[in-house]
Amino acid sequence: SKPIKNICCIGAGYVGGPTCSIIAYKCPHIQVNVVDLSQERINAWNSPNIPIYEPGLNEIVQKCIGKNLHFTTKVEECIEKADIIFISVNTPTKTYGVGLGRAPDLTYVESAARTISKVAKTSKIIVEKSTVPVKAAESITNMLKSNHQPNVEFQVLSNPEFLAEGTAINDLLKPDRILIGGDNNEKGKWAIGQLSSVYENWVEKSLIITTNTWSSELSKLAANAMLAQRISSVNSISAICEASGADIEHVSRAIGFDTRIGNKFLQASVGFGGSCFQKDINNLIYLCENLNLKEVAEYWHQVLVINDYQKKRFVDKIVKCLFNTLNNKKITLLGFAFKKNTGDTRESAAIQICKYFLDEGALITVLDPKVEYEQMILELSNPQLNLPIEMVKRKVQLCSTDVIEACKGSHALVVCTEWDIFKTYDYKGIYEIMQKPAHIFDGRLILDHEQLISIGFHVEAVGKKLNNQ
Ligand code: NAI
């Protein structure tokens, strides 16, 4: 075994960027090149405005960039120099053909693998970091065989990423575990050892778990499915609370004391979003269907059904409280990102909520500390939503710098993202400038409901019945 000196990461996105920044930061003896086909994204990484917002990330990038961390579009050159190559490209759900709406689209993984096999003149360890279907490592191995040079060997490892956006830096610095899957033979074990040696620069050896490739690939899908399942489970109980007069926060607290259940990830909400949960559950469902495990597929499908139901329930309640019509009423959305501390809007619950509001004829003003206007419009012009783009631009505004302007004349405030700053607003002042009756719908359970009611608001929150006057 020779020490790893050079790493190339294909894909400079939410995973590739932060992961490699931490590797560079913790391993000054390793040169790390993060490559991407998108010149725009690479330019952004090399500018003072890095392309993703993640607390603590910019500081780490600025410490390492130009020293042992480089962002570039020179894909082939960096592949050739590398001992280890991470594949961190996007794996969206297929929008065409076989497995439409279910199977992950491996177009980008395949193109990365083909480039590697074309240009690599020496043997490499290839690491699938992207979330892929079970047995993808086998497919990648076959793709790599396509036109590789003589005497070049590839060892393919699975090393799924478990970071969560919003807390990525802490997750990467202090991971719960690192999972590495590889072939159960001499060469596979050697490759696992090489990758493990990189992590051992900052992660305790007992936290580095090794397994076979399939178990590793399935573990990532299973972990995300279980996390999403917890949210849907709590949200399903929140529906019972609203109907019965129980309080979901009290129920979550009570069940969370059970050490077998644990108290994390029990927060009721408008439903989960983000680029991963839905996609990965669909990936799991597709796998089950292919393995003829119909009951298992149906079980996981229900997690998605409840998530959509939660958003629909929330909106239905809003429409009902606003006298069954939103036509030409101004509604202020607090948050558009899929969760706090990120600017990421992929699959955000706010998107579907806006869709329902626009179908009802509402005028929407969005307040979000990190989401940009173009990004928001891009999400709302997704053809699946079937909203005419001119109408979206006419009816949806972003107004993130002026809270008063955003709330002036509004009939309702709707909390979609749990940003801390929303707790600090002067709701007394906001109440004065809103239409009456002034409504607040707390889809994240972050506001002080009793205080808001005492100001005069009509308040509704997920998972509880409030004593409105
Ligand atoms: P992303 O879309 O932010 O980044 C992917 C990047 O890969 C893009 O910049 C794209 O231009 C680039 N790319 C695609 N094909 C390429 C090629 N052939 N050569 C060079 N660059 C190429 O995606 P993100 O969020 O980083 O996700 C990547 C993978 O990691 C996905 O499989 C995802 O499921 C997984 N993952 C994502 C997490 C997240 O929090 N976003 C967490 C854990 C896993």
Automatic annotation (TrEMBL):
Domain of life: Eukaryota
Catalytic EC class: oxidoreductase
InterPro entries: 6-PGluconate_DH-like_C_sf, NAD(P)-bd_dom_sf, UDP-Glc/GDP-Man, UDP-Glc/GDP-Man_DH_C, UDP-Glc/GDP-Man_DH_C_sf, UDP-Glc/GDP-Man_DH_dimer, UDP-Glc/GDP-Man_DH_N, UDPglc_DH_euk
UDP-glucose/GDP-mannose dehydrogenase C-terminal domain span: 332-449
Pathway(s): Nucleotide-sugar biosynthesis; UDP-alpha-D-glucuronate biosynthesis; UDP-alpha-D-glucuronate from UDP-alpha-D-glucose: step 1/1
Entry keyword annotation includes Oxidoreductase: yes
Cellular component GO terms held in the UniProt record: nucleus
Molecular function in Gene Ontology: NAD binding; UDP-glucose 6-dehydrogenase activity
EC assignment: 1.1.1.22
Residue positions of the active site: C276 (nucleophile)
Protein task: Involved in the biosynthesis of glycosaminoglycans; hyaluronan, chondroitin sulfate, and heparan sulfate.
Assigned protein family: Belongs to the UDP-glucose/GDP-mannose dehydrogenase family.
Protein name per UniProt: UDP-glucose 6-dehydrogenase
Organism annotation: Brachionus plicatilis (Marine rotifer)
